[in-house]
Design goal:
It comes from candidate division WOR-3 bacterium JGI_Cruoil_03_44_89. The chain has 14 helices and 30 strands. By secondary structure, it is α+β, with helices and mostly antiparallel strands. The structure holds adenosine-5'-diphosphate and magnesium ion.
């Protein structure tokens, strides 16, 4: 380890010289209060900024053990430190100066969710933060004096303000940790309570706008209020007693007039697999961690998926037991999205009519008369949703304002009226009795088999040009894997581009388990098991901008690689009787 003064000497020496001389500062420095790691120096002022780490020993940082003594707390504290470091860098870093990215000090920026991230770590010996610095230049000439100011004036202030316990607001810090711990506790309680989701009374579900996930504010926000019949009380470890709507397992319909808050409720449930920051409004909206939002996704590629539970007798005798296409339709894509989720262990399906294929959801009596079953390949979801629960124990929460035929297959019916849910199950049952649906059930006796698939390693080629491995993410919704693009636009439960980045690298990591025998589920499980050690297993170098993802999204991404090739495994028939 070099002394900090050595860094200063180098910066003064290379001042005014070519940008490449910055390479000389790569290394580890003892800065007294902390250790500085200059891991990677950028090649030029326009390239991705240089990667830097700081480790503050706990005798200086001073975080009490109870701030990180279990997984929930540790992740929340790391998230908190990342946010504080971000704030401090905007306060103390003078920002851009010179060419390109010159002058910036920046860290991964979390949103409304609290996620495990590789930007910050808290251990007994030290606190570590990973960030980037744009080493300053004018043209391509080293601006050594500016670099010196960044390392010796700005950075120490940022570190002190954000990584020293004594300089942080203790009550804000503990609130952050306790909210996350409570939410994790609540999510774990769902199983014991026989629930798939919980929405706290007083929760704020609507968002500021379609592109701003902060809570909606102002006088017209209606706080959530559970119907009496579904109200559940839970005692949380920190907050104590809370009440809210418990949605039991089974089939739940969300109905109600247009613009009365149905989609907003389901969107909150989709994101209830994650913890939210204090003040978000959805802190105590939690969902079964294996919940998947399902939507139609026409245009996607499909590789040998057994969609026969939903679709049969396609034109030209196309095989739906191992269905492949380069360009799926709305209904085949929606069926595929369900089957692929079942393959990797989904427990709750979340479906919104707004993003569903109508012909996948429903086929009414009149249409059944006009187009006979043998001319219609699709068995609509309405005829399968009960079997899904009975045979495979997969629950569904479904927004459907447009078809009362679903009353026959629902365990409960929630009606949204002016943003408040009412339990209208009894009325719906009575109506179903009075006007018996004339449609015939087309679903057969059982849901049908789920045939698992074995991904073949050769179909995952991360190379591009002379690079053996070239994987990058473009924002939230796209991964460039070698020469191929993976489109994640329909994966609604990804919330952070650092998740996307991690998934890109995790797909490559997963290839080590593709031995021609393991199923996709087994492979995803193996990757997640390794990742219990942390996100760092994905990369030999320290990376500061990974965020944790679920196996369900990893599988979803692999399934959308357009070169994917699989072998199907024998069908496992599921025939529970209710
Ligand atoms: P639906 O799916 O029933 O047509 P949405 O969920 O799309 O309705 O909601 C319609 C509008 O109402 C959206 O702009 C949404 O932000 C707003 N909204 C939803 N819930 C609330 C609420 N609790 N308070 C105030 N506005 C809300
Ligand atoms: Mg809607």
């Amino acid at each position: 380890m070099r002394a900090a003064e050595e860094l200063r000497r180098i910066l003064r020496r290379i001042d005014g010289r070519g940008y490449k001389t910055y390479k000389d500062i790569e290394g580890v420095y003892n800065c007294g209060e902390y250790v500085l790691f200059v891991d990677h120096v950028q090649g030029d002022p326009f390239a991705s900024p240089s990667r830097v780490r700081v480790q503050v020993p706990q005798k200086v940082a001073g975080f009490p053990e109870d701030a990180y003594h279990n997984k929930s707390r540790e992740i929340a504290l790391r998230d908190f430190l990342t946010r504080r470091f971000f704030d401090a860098s905007t306060n103390f870093c003078k920002g851009r100066r010179g060419t390109g990215k010159s002058g910036i000090i920046s860290i991964d920026r979390p949103g409304q969710e609290i996620l495990e991230r590789s930007s910050a770590f808290v251990t007994e010996p030290y606190v570590e933060v990973r960030f980037v610095m744009g080493l300053p230049a004018f043209g391509r000439t080293v601006a050594g004096r500016h670099a010196e100011a960044m390392f010796f004036e700005e950075l120490p202030q940022i570190v002190r303000a954000s990584l020293f316990f004594k300089h942080l607001d203790e009550s804000t810090l503990y609130e952050h940790i306790e909210v996350a711990e409570d939410a994790d506790f609540l999510r774990k309680q769902l199983v014991h309570l026989g629930l798939v989701a919980f929405v706290a009374d007083e929760a704020i579900l609507p968002r500021a706008s379609g592109v701003d996930s902060r809570p909606l504010t102002g006088g017209r926000v209606v706080p959530f209020e559970s119907p009496e019949s579904l109200r559940v009380k839970v005692i949380l470890p920190n907050r104590g007693a809370i009440s809210g709507m418990g949605i039991p397992k089974g089939v739940t319909l969300v109905v109600g007039g247009g613009y009365h808050g149905k989609s907003t409720l389901v969107r909150a449930l989709e994101l209830g697999v994650y913890d939210h920051i204090p003040g978000d409004g959805r802190e105590f909206v939690v969902t079964n961690p294996y919940a998947v939002k399902i939507r139609a996704e026409d245009g996607r590629r499909i590789e040998k998926v057994d969609i026969s539970p939903f679709i049969n007798n396609l034109p030209f005798g196309q095989n739906t037991g191992a269905f492949s296409t380069e360009d799926a339709s709305g209904s085949t894509s929606q069926a595929t999205n369900i089957i692929e989720a079942l393959e990797v262990g989904v427990q709750l399906l979340l479906i919104d009519e707004d993003t569903s294929a109508t012909n996948f959801m429903i086929r009414d009596h009149r249409m059944q008369e006009l187009v006979s079953k043998d001319k219609e390949p699709i068995t609509p979801f309405i005829d399968k949703v009960r079997q899904l629960y009975r045979d495979i124990r997969v629950s569904t929460i479904l927004v459907i304002g447009g078809s009362g035929d679903y009353f026959d297959v629902a365990d409960r019916v929630l009606c949204m009226v002016e943003y408040k849910p009412y339990d209208r199950t009894k009325e719906a049952r009575a109506i179903a009795k009075k006007h018996t649906a004339e449609r015939k059930s087309e679903g057969g006796k059982h849901f049908g088999g789920i045939s698992e698939r074995i991904p073949l390693a050769h179909s995952f080629d991360p190379s591009k040009g002379r690079r053996e491995v070239k994987i990058s993410s473009k924002g939230l919704q796209s991964i460039a894997f070698g020469t191929h693009k993976i489109d994640l636009g329909a994966i609604g439960q990804l919330v952070d581009k650092s998740q996307t980045r991690a998934i890109g690298d995790a797909i490559y990591y997963a290839t080590r388990y593709m031995d021609g025998r393991r199923t996709l589920k087994k492979i995803v499980d193996a990757v997640l098991r390794d990742m219990e050690e942390g996100l760092d297993v994905l990369n030999p170098r320290p990376v500061g901008d990974y965020a944790m993802f679920r196996g369900l999204e990893l599988a979803a991404a692999a399934n959308r690689l357009r070169t994917l090739s699989v072998r199907q495994k024998r069908i496992k028939e599921m025939t529970n009787d209710e």
